[in-house]
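haha ok so turns out i had the wrong file open the whole time. this is the CORRECT one, sorry everyone. sequence first:
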Amino acid sequence: MEPKKISITLPEDIANDIDALSADLHMSAGRVVMSIIKAYLAERRRIENKTELKKGYLEMADINLSIANECFNSDQATQDAYEQFLMGCE
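then structure:
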């Protein structure tokens, strides 16, 4: 993908922090800003994915509980019938 050039205006303290970081990392200020933005966007996507997963699990909770209750009731009925059968064998 072809890079797109944009201009931004930053407060002096942030610009100074970026300049210092770019000197420490031996990278251009533009590359430092790009790395910071990429990291922010990746974290934002991670949080959005986690939120969507949580929403999905909560939506499925009632369905899963209903299925579990049906299985429990079925197992309980089988258990009751088996116990009745055993009582008749005395």
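The chain has a mean pLDDT of 89.
again sry for the mixup
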